[in-house]
Amino acid sequence: MNSFAFTLIVFSALMHALWNLFVKQSTHKTIFIWWMFLASLGLFTLLLPLLPGEFPHPDGTIVSLAAASAGCFVLYHLCCGRAYHGGDLSLTYPLTQTSMIYVPLWGVLVLGEHLNLPGLCGIALVISGAYTLQLRQLSPGELLRPFRRFGEPSIRAALAAGFVYSIGAIIDKTGVTRYPPVYFTYLLVLFMLLFMTLNLLRPRYRRGIAAEWRQNRRLIVLSGPVVMASFLSFRYGLSLAPVSYAVPARQVSILIGVLIGILFLGETCGRIRSFAALLIFAGVMLIRFG
């Protein structure tokens, strides 16, 4: 992976960790994320006239790719929410990261990407670190615990989240290689907001929309440029690097999230989190230099 693509992906990871911090501080997560994407799309729309040239007319294939990718990412968030709501985080979170197993596989089989040995080792280390992060202890029994409870709805939802995200990543990569990344990102955010709006039309959410704005409007306004920067920088990086490397490399956001938790939220960093962070860091460095 070249230096510019790597820098874009690391910057995207920083922005991703920041908007997740905003979500963590919000009252109603689903409604806040909708407001966040609304703020991002509004800012994006205001900036479009400042871009050089005109908005290139998207054909049916590009629109379909943007809609399909957006559908995958919205479904990913819904699956994660279902998994976290009904199950132990230490069981479900590692399984949502299984997308990093599928993405290199789809990259090779579908997109014809080629992976070298250092890159493969880096991907394996990132996967190991992401999986280790939520374990309660380092033991064979704990490592296998999530896989012993496949019958639980929360476990199935977590596995579905990982699989759906991997499909979305491949569609994303296809889109940014066929269409300018900035405009594909705009279409992607537009469709994501549309799908989220359809979800918020349900009676259980309607009353909370105005309340969330009153309670967290400062965070919502701040989140707009952060989400836009995260989406744009990642898709520009994705257009320059193999998706098999880009998605695992972006997991450096986990390290940033751990640091934010320690420095700003007063969280502790035990031995397991430290070990997981080292695995991810080593993996990302192998991906970069391999």
Automatic annotation (TrEMBL):
It comes from the Bacteria. Keywords: Membrane, Transmembrane, Transmembrane helix. The chain crosses the membrane at residues 6-23, 30-50, 62-79, 91-109, 115-133, 154-171, 183-201, 219-238, 244-265, 272-289. SUPFAM superfamilies: Multidrug resistance efflux transporter EmrE. Residues 6-131, 157-288 form the EamA domain. Coiled coil: none annotated. InterPro entries: EamA_dom (IPR000620), EmrE-like (IPR037185). This is Membrane protein. The lineage of its organism: Bacteria, Pseudomonadati, Thermodesulfobacteriota, Desulfuromonadia, Geobacterales.
